[in-house]
Amino acid sequence: MQYRTLGRTGVQVSSLALGAMNFGAIGRTTQDEATAIVDAALEAGINLIDTADMYGAGESEEMVGKAIAGRRDDIVLATKATMPMGDERNHRGSSRRWLVTELDNSLRRLGVDHVDLYQMHRWDPTTSDEETLSALTDLQRAGKIRYFGSSTFPAYRIVQAQWAAREHHVSRYVTEQPSYSLLQRGIEAHVLPVAEEYGLGVLVWSPLASGWLSGAVRAGRDITTHRSTLLPERFDAGVPANRARLDAVEQLAEVADRAGLTMIQLALGFVTAHPAVTSALIGPRTQAHLTAQLAAADTVLPADVLDAVDAIVAPGVDLAAHEKFDTPPALLDPALRRRR
């Protein structure tokens, strides 16, 4: 396992990190299975575990808490907030009112007195940076969080938050957690350069592109069997972007075969090769998934393999741009780009 410094914090984290989204009902993973996955991950050298309040409406945090009981000090523990937690209108977002309340809820579910990294799951356009950063700074000073970061923020919002922290003399985000894979390279154009400029640690999610790069999705197979209940259209063969992804996967599989790698090794080796990336979050649902992903822990891709990848999916290109989660609101709501 490789270890890298998380931004400028001085904290050393493993280049593969354990994402716990699949713990519980979402991944149909039981507590015993989740604990076994955590055991195996820690034994392999993973020392960062990432979850979120909204994963299974708190279920993931509860399962992580039980799995790490008695060994909290050996783990860099990360969770997130801002996504809706129920129907009540104020049980979401990044206001001081909600973050103070929800962090206590997360700490209770995790069974700990602090988290190492508290991340804003999405940018909240209804709340000012000053409001959020000042609340997070107070929680940090209270000892409930060690650091805080953002997740899936557009590059310009990352920059704005850094300037807001300086202007209002509060602590800043020290990490960003974006989506990044062989098939979704858009962050190379804006987010990763900004992260490097501000010295942010980068924890990338979905490095296997929700299963597209697991090795199980290939031409001639029924890809609809990979559909999830959350985003069934992601594996709809009638979607042009999915056909483009399938074509790219076939070409990437050839690159992996020539290099003597599995698709998983190629995919994880690719994202961890970028100098701005600190860790790749893997989200195994079973121990078999974890074993296959841990095989990439020490994968270092040579220049000729990276060049071959660039020839298939160009740098800075998203093959499924419609699946981006950092789109500015004005591109989604016509009313925001039309003068009244």
Spans of 5+ residues with little confidence (pLDDT < 50)? none
Overall helicity: 25-40%
* N-C termini distance: 56 Å
Largest beta sheet: what is the strand line-up? 3-4-5-6-7-8-9-10
Structural class: alpha/beta
Which overall shape is indicated by the principal axes computed on the Cα atoms?
globular
Q: Compute the gyration radius: what is it?
A: 19 Å
Topology, number of strands: 10
Please provide a brief summary of the model.
This protein has 340 residues and is of the alpha/beta class. The protein has helices spanning 31-43, 59-68, 96-110, 129-141, 155-168, 191-198, 240-259, 263-273, 287-294, 303-312, 329-332, and strands spanning 3-5, 12-14, 16-19, 48-50, 76-81, 115-120, 145-151, 175-177, 201-204, 279-282. The chain has 11 helices and 10 strands.
Task: Give a description of the structure.
It is a single chain. By secondary structure, the chain is an alpha/beta fold. About 35% of the residues lie in helices and about 15% in strands. It has an 8-stranded parallel beta barrel, surrounded by 5 helices. A two-stranded antiparallel ribbon has the order 1-2. Strand 4 (about 50), helix 2 and strand 5 (about 75-80) form a beta-alpha-beta unit. Helix 5 packs parallel to helix 6 and helix 7 (about 240-260) packs antiparallel against helix 10. The longest helix is centred in the C-terminal third of the chain and has 20 residues, at about 240-260. About 45% of the residues are buried.
